[in-house]
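F.,

This is the one I mentioned.
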C-alpha cells in the first residue's frame, strides 16, 4: 500500500457467539479498545509496515490469522 492510503484488515470467522478480537502488530498487542473484527489504518506511514494478526477467542478456544503490510512511497 502507499503512504497515506487507508488500509483495512478483516478477521472473518464463522458465526460464533461471544467472540472477542485482539489485534497485534509484529506480535505486540495494539493497545486500544478495539475488539471488533476489523482494523483500519486511516493514514499509514512506513512505520506501520509489518505483520498484523487478529486473535479471535471465546470459551471454546481461539484462532489467529495474520497478514503482512508493506507501506511504500515517499
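My design for it:
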Amino acid at each position: 500500500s502507499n503512504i497515506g492510503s487507508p488500509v483495512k484488515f478483516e478477521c472473518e470467522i464463522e458465526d460464533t457467539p461471544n467472540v472477542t478480537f485482539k489485534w497485534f502488530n509484529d506480535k505486540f498487542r495494539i493497545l486500544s479498545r478495539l475488539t471488533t473484527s476489523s482494523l483500519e489504518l486511516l493514514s499509514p506511514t512506513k512505520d506501520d509496515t509489518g505483520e498484523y494478526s487478529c486473535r479471535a477467542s471465546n470459551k471454546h478456544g481461539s484462532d489467529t490469522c495474520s497478514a503482512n503490510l508493506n507501506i511504500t512511497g515517499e
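The radius of gyration is 13 Å.

Talk soon.
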